[in-house]
Amino acid sequence: MLKKIQKGSLVETAIESLRHAIETEQWLVGDKLPVESDLSEALGVSRNTVREAVRVLAHVGMLETRQGDGTYVRATRDAGETLKRIARTQLTDQLEVRIMLETEAAKLAAQRRTEQDLRSMTMALDARGKADANLEARIHHDEAFHHALVAASHNSALAELYDYFSHAITQTIERTENDADLPEPSQEDHELLLAAVRRQDSVKAEKLAQNLLAPSLKALRK
């Protein structure tokens, strides 16, 4: 049941009310929303406010407006909101997911990498090594290496998921680089991983990727 809106930004509150209704499956994927006038009455706001809220949720992919037909639920999750929630999770949770993604990526990269993939990973890793004391540059090139590794998996779904999760990935890199209490993956650790991918040793690459952040994860769990 939709709750009438009392105060605050009417459009933002209408968006939140509709999003909550969709996320809690008051309407399922494929369901048609009530007409604009009914939503307006249920929320206690104008039809213009409802129209703008629906437009925003359609933009983020939760709703789909079909001309002359109505508005339908397209997805039960707002990708942008999900990303914000990920950013608020514990660092241990983020590291666990990052390890899972990069471990699978390393295994697939060892099986599927091309010469161009190897060049991209090598350039990023060489730049990471040369950055030395320049922390910002080292983080940038570290990110570039891991994105190149994932791209070398040639799995578009994995690459999209990794890109989507990249903000949390950046946070883990910055934290491990800045926090003296967290062991930092060395340049040599990265070089060994690249070498395994280069010689197409998927078992070794998978293990090395898994071990890359394991010490940081262990330190966080203490």
TrEMBL record:
Domain HTH gntR-type: 8-76
Record protein name field: Transcriptional regulator, GntR family
Molecular functions (GO terms): DNA binding; DNA-binding transcription factor activity
Keyword NADP applies: no
Superkingdom of this protein's organism: Bacteria
Matches recorded under SUPFAM superfamilies: GntR ligand-binding domain-like, Winged helix' DNA-binding domain
InterPro entries linked: GntR_C, TF_FadR/GntR_C, Tscrpt_reg_HTH_GntR, WH-like_DNA-bd_sf, WH_DNA-bd_sf
Any Pfam family matching the protein: GntR
Keywords from the named record: DNA-binding, Transcription, Transcription regulation
Keyword Transcription recorded: yes
